[in-house]
Specification:
Elements lengths: L3 H41 L17 H7 L2 H34 L5 H13 L2 H14 L6 H25 L3 H9 L4 H12 L1 H16 L3 H6 L7 H11 L3 H40 L1
């Protein structure tokens, strides 16, 4: 005869299994709900029919060809590419220096500065976009391409700082102190010792900043000057006119860029980290 304690334990195990199954089922439903439209967009971009829908009438690359011949799309792509490159380079440079200062030094206002740098990542983009737009209007400043780039840098900077901080914490201070004790300047120590060890974080932060800028929609709608279109805003303007199969092709390109670049950055970061660790062990031995 089973004891009451064993019966209670068996009942809890059974309830726990059903709870995990229910959680897995709900999670699967959420993933299907999130990714089914993306999969449908990619599939329909190869549909030969000009009416985007199922069933597919045939396989064709004609919409990608028309997309490459669309001057408005190409202009938006060049604009987004240029803004994303400037954003990635600037945000990475500022973010790495900021992370180095926050981790390695003690100074008045360190905690408020750290909070202020991370704050744009905590505020929803729509609220931040509207707030800065109101500020621009209040000071009677026209919207320019420079302000759009500065806004993208503001949005990407917190993520670069967080990635660089996580890497800086793992770098032992003794390497820098050894260089300083041998007569190296603080700048030389950073450039020859710390920065090479930060390369994985620099690459990952730059690629993430590029992706955030290239895929930004909400802020770009508020901050872009008249007549300037980025890729996300170009997609929205095309959707207002008609739902053309070209949009499916353009959406697929955006998916490849925004998903492929962070994955590539993660792989590069892992490879560089392993390489640096291997070289460090060899030098120690």
């Amino acid at each position: 005869m089973m004891k009451p304690r064993q019966m209670t334990a068996g009942r809890r195990n059974k309830e726990g299994k059903w709870a995990w199954r229910l959680t897995g089922f709900v999670t699967l439903c959420v993933y299907i709900f999130m990714f089914a439209p993306i999969v449908a967009t990619v599939i329909l971009s190869f549909n030969a029919s000009m009416f985007g829908g199922f069933p597919i009438t045939g396989f064709s690359l004609q919409w990608y060809g028309k997309l490459m011949a669309n001057e408005a799309v190409l202009a938006a792509f060049r604009t987004s590419l240029w803004i994303a490159l400037v954003t990635a380079i600037t945000a990475t440079a500022i973010g790495v220096v900021t992370a180095f200062a926050i981790v390695r030094f003690e100074f008045p206002g360190k905690q408020p500065l750290s909070t202020l740098v991370i704050l744009p990542a905590l505020v929803p983009e729509t609220i931040l976009g509207v707030g800065l737009l109101v500020l621009i209007k209040a000071v009677d400043q026209p919207r320019t391409l420079l302000l759009l780039v500065l806004g993208h840098i503001l949005l990407a900077l917190p993520y670069v700082v967080l990635i660089a901080q996580a890497r800086m914490v793992g770098i032992r201070r003794v390497y820098e102190e050894a260089a300083l004790s041998l007569g190296a300047s603080r700048f030389s120590s950073f450039g020859e010792i710390t920065l090479p060890l930060l390369v994985p974080a620099v690459v990952a932060g730059a690629m993430l900043a590029f992706t955030i800028s290239f895929d930004n929609t909400s802020a770009s709608l508020f901050w872009r000057p008249a007549g300037v279109e980025t890729m996300p805003t170009q997609i929205l303007s095309m959707l207002k006119v008609s739902i053309s199969p070209e949009i499916n092709a353009l959406g697929t390109v955006m998916i490849l860029v925004t998903v492929g670049i962070p994955l590539l950055g993660g792989l590069i970061m892992q490879s560089l980290t392993k390489l640096i660790r291997g070289e460090t062990r060899e030098e120690v031995q």
